[in-house]
Amino acid sequence: MAAKFNEDECIRCGACVEDCPFEALSLPDDSPTPVCDEDLCFTCGSCLEICPMGAITIEE
Ligand code: SF4
Ligand code: SF4
């Protein structure tokens, strides 16, 4: 399970990376969106709530 990011909507604001309580998200310089570590994501949904662009979904 992991957070998935829509490249066309994400503006790389970093809000989700800061928000994740499990530090599952990172924002590599060479990536158009954050990256989710599936081993750390507990699909709590917090990043979905905070994203101003609605760019995040959860993939089971
Ligand atoms: S769903 Fe929760 S645990 Fe997973 S990346 Fe988003 S904030 Fe982090
Ligand atoms: S909060 Fe939304 S727009 Fe900002 S970096 Fe995360 S996915 Fe992209």
Key words describing this protein structure:
60 residues; alpha+beta; two-stranded antiparallel ribbon; two-stranded antiparallel sheet; Alpha-Beta Plaits; single chain; binds iron/sulfur cluster; 4 strands
Low-confidence stretches: none
**Tell me, what is the CATH class?**
Alpha Beta
Note the total helix count.
Answer: 2
Rg over C-alpha atoms, rounded to the nearest angstrom: 10 Å
Specify the CATH architecture: 2-Layer Sandwich
Kindly report the average pLDDT value: 97
How many domains make up the 3D coordinates?
1
Query: Biggest sheet: strands side by side, in what order?
Result: 1-4
Secondary structure: number of strands? 4
Oligomerization: single chain
User: Distance N terminus to C terminus?
Assistant: 4 Å
**What does the overall shape look like?**
globular
Classify the helix fraction into a percent range. Answer: 10-25%
Bound molecules: iron/sulfur cluster
Give a quick account of the main beta sheet: strands, pairing sense, barrel closure.
2 strands, antiparallel
Order of helices and strands: EHEEHE
Strand proportion: 15-25%
**Category by helix and strand content:** alpha+beta
CATH topology: Alpha-Beta Plaits
